[in-house]
Amino acid sequence: MIRFLPRWVAVLGVMSAIVSITPVAASAEPTGATVTWAVQPADARGPDGRRWIEHTLDPGAVVTEHLAVRNFGDSPVVFALQAADGYLTDKGRFNMLTSGQESVDGGTWIMLPETVTVGAKQTKVVPFTITVPPDATPGDHPAGVAATVTSTGGTVAVQSRVGFRVMLRASGTVTATIGVEDLIVRYERSWNPFTAGDVHLTFTARNNGNVAVTGDGTVRVDEMVGSGGRNASTEVPELMPGDGRQVAARVGGVWGLGRLTTTVEVTPAVVSGDPAGAQMRPTTTTVTVWAVPWPHLVITVLIGTVILGWLTSTRRRRRHLARLLDQARAEGRAEGRTSVITAD
């Protein structure tokens, strides 16, 4: 399933704010008035309704694109334009490298003018080119473009950017696979020994393919005691090639009476572009842990102790009763012999 940021978040949201000690070279110098602006994909006539720009291109290909910078303020503003490699933050939001970080991938494919001046309440369309290197590897090379305004105060410069993602894919074999790494399984027993507990697990989902993917995961727990197994599902958020993110899941209804075999299977799904012809490679990982049923063992020992005590007490009572009977029989025989002698 394709998941993207809502339109206004992607277009109007501030992508980053950078605080640096030295001034930024390509900087706008707005007046004290608040600057409000938006950056959108466009054609030569203006914004064209796209949320982002997306292309699948052959190595060596060159394509011309456009972006529109909209100034909602009451004064003209000089915006610095920037293209950089794109990535996902720890919270799964798309961002691009800051001006102080060097791009080495898709961001280097994009050539933009350094600045653009946009009048008050106006929109300016800016053309830019995307050039795919002849040796580009197949798969996704995410990037972003942004318009920047820098506010200065003494020796501190605060750079604010608004932009959108540019999803670039070099043609070739598309591989979608998510590896399961560092699978950790923990059994949590219920406070009630007569109620099943839960299996908690965490793992690192790693995009080992060459395109952005999400994933659907299935978790199965099989027990040594009992029939069948317990299942649960989990989702892997969007991952760029090479990205990894921790995923958690819980499987309920597990008694934990000994060996627990936990199997995680993740099926990838291509986020953008045409998934037809993609090599989809599900991943399966299995881990076995032992859950010692201490409450059940304690209850078993207690029950066994009670039964053993009852049996021991019963045997003692029976032996005591048998001794009493033997004694009574012996006394009866002795009394019988005494009675016979007295009669003679």
Automatic annotation (TrEMBL):
Residues 1-25 form the signal peptide. It comes from the Bacteria. Keywords: Membrane, Signal, Transmembrane, Transmembrane helix. The chain crosses the membrane at residues 290-311. The keyword Membrane applies. This is DUF916 domain-containing protein.
